[in-house]
Amino acid sequence: MATTLAKDSSQATAGHSAPPPKRVTRRPNWVAGTISWIWLVIVIVPIYWIVITSFKSQSNYYIENPLLPPPAPTLANYGMVIEAGFIQYFINSVIVTLGAVVPAVAVSFMAAYAIVRSGGGRFLRWTNSTFLMGLAIPHQATIIPIYLIIIQLGLYDSLMALILPSIAFAIPLSVLVLSNFIRDVPKELFESMRLDGASESRTLWNLALPLTRPAVVTVTIYNALTIWNGFLLPLILTQSPDKRTLPLALWSFQGQYSINVPAVLASVVLTTLPILILYVVGRRQLLAGLTAGFSK
Amino acid sequence: MTVPPIPARGSASLAAVPGGQGRGLPWLAVPALLFFVAFGVIPLFGVFALSFTSWDGLGEIHLTGFDSWRAVLTDPGLPHALWVTFLVIALSWAVQTPASILLGTFLAGFQRYRAVLSVFYFIPLLLSSAAIAITYKALLDPNFGLGAGLGIPILVQDWLGEPVLAFGVVIFVVSWQFIPFHSLIYQGGVRQIPRSMYEAAEIDGAGRIRMFFSITLPQLKYTIITSSTLMVVGSLVFFDLIFVLTAGGPGDATRVLALEMYKRGFQANLMGPASAIAVILVLVGLALALLLRRLGGRDATHSQLEGA
């Protein structure tokens, strides 16, 4: 299985760099073609509308044709969004995302390494089944006890309150994907490291990690996107405006300025911009990351 | 994007690497285990425990036996919330699955323009549920939205104010958000189908539609199970999108179970009954995941990951 997963995402990662033999197509495929263009319109129109509207002034918004770009684009909406404290929210989101993803991937990698390398001791076998069980738990349903735990720890209304559960939620899938890739590392390499007298931590750092880097990147991206877009944890575990992360800030900004459509849409564009830039830079990694462990 | 994955069985065949020696190795797993026990395992048991208590979210927690359960199970709101949840699951599945299979199959081709189209296709994956909900709320606004701006009467509806329309909007927006993800899964699935099968069918003179139904669809069986499990379990615990888009309204037309849990717990401060609903969510989720795995045959998950 590990082989397939690895092959799979390297395929997704490498993408079209080595185009496989072209499927013989003589007749155009009308059904698929039509559906694909319809879907394109469904996706593009709202996104196009968000972007052009965010540059319109509120007064012109009602007069102009909503699907035409503004004759006199304005950045006023963006100024308003930034004044509403979005720089702070952006920083909060960055702190929470980095603060959760880095430890989550690190501890998951260590655990995955231990699970694969051990011949199957009882403790590690039990640990592994715990993580597998964790894949089936809908975390949204355990939010009330998490709220209680966070209060008991005295962390309510802090960024740490968002970071700790986010790390835990990320672990099961990360361990599953990473262990599948570590299992692909040829045993002989581990064996020769061992004969050279390398410690486990050196083997992990100098052998397993470099050889599974694509998987680590993939898992990192998946977790980062999930946490960046998270809404429930900040909604429940924070309270003060200065602890908001971007999705929550979007929601309260919208509640406040719902009539000012251009400003609301500017806030949507602004909060999505970082991910969009990432998408442009590393689309293949990102898409591979999203289906890590799912696609066959 | 929180998509609870399927319970992957025995994926870590522990017979893995023989000869790995044990000294100190288990310690490497301890940090991950600690985090997960603290915020994954304990809350799971905690939610069961809290469903037998009463707690207002601030004060003391009192044991009250089955009071919360009685309150939840006798509330006429529960069957309604269950029904709405079921409808969301069933309809969003019925819309997303055919669309994702077709799009995934289409994207599996290697033509250049398909690659270009796919750049746009996957954009909804990147947006947060909050951003998507806010966009559609603005876009569908009867006074300030797109329909009003274009002056097309049929588009000027109170989309989120009429129960049936609001429900339809929820299904549409859910599909808009998640079809890209599932198309991606199906694209991977289709690319794994051996080309020789198509070549053989071609020699036998099979048409494209015939090939789709006789080769592509049957070969995608396990992909369909995986994708459906993610879809069903995902829409069971759908919260953020519906919360921002309709907040369960109008009335209680789109009040799904997860929303019901939030409202009781964090708006009415009844954590006991809210926990009982959470327990129902966990149980229904597990039951659905198991059921779908049964449907796919015993080894669904396994062979799925094997690559058919």
Any overview of this molecule?
The complex is a heterodimer of chains A (296) and B (308). Chain A folds into 2 domains: 27-74, no CATH class; 75-290, Orthogonal Bundle (MetI-like fold), CATH 1.10.3720.10. Helices cover 72% and strands 0% of the residues of chain A. Chain A has helices spanning 2-14, 30-54, 58-61, 76-117, 122-134, 143-152, 159-182, 187-195, 200-211, 213-228, 232-237, 246-256, 261-281, 283-290. In chain A, helix 4 (76-117) packs across helix 10 (213-228) and helix 7 (159-182) runs antiparallel to helix 10 (213-228). The longest helix of chain A is centred in the N-terminal third of the chain and has 42 residues, at 76-117. With 308 residues, chain B is mainly alpha-helical. Chain B has one domain: MetI-like fold, CATH 1.10.3720. Helices cover 67% and strands 1% of the residues of chain B. Chain B has a two-stranded antiparallel ribbon. Chains A and B meet through helix 1, helix 2, helix 4, helix 5 and helix 6 of A and helix 1, helix 3, helix 4, helix 5 and helix 6 of B.
Strand count, sense and barrel status of the largest sheet of chain B are: 2 strands, antiparallel
By CATH, the superfamily of the largest domain in chain A comes out as MetI-like
CATH class of chain B: Mainly Alpha
Structural class of chain B: mainly alpha
Count of DSSP-assigned helices of chain B: 14
Order of helices and strands of chain A: HHHHHHHHHHHHHH
Low-confidence stretches of chain B: 1-20, 298-308
Whole-angstrom Rg of chain A: 23 Å
CATH architecture of chain B: Orthogonal Bundle
- The number of helical runs of chain A is 14
Total domains of chain B, how many? Answer: 1
- Supply Rg of chain B: 23 Å
Distance between the termini of chain B: 27 Å
Element order, helices and strands of chain B? Answer: HEEHHHHHHHHHHHHH
CATH architecture descriptor of the largest domain in chain A: Orthogonal Bundle
Do you know the CATH topology of the largest domain in chain A? MetI-like fold
Mean pLDDT across all amino acids of chain A: 82
From the 3D structure, determine the CATH topology of chain B: MetI-like fold
The fraction of residues assigned to DSSP E strands of chain A is under 5%
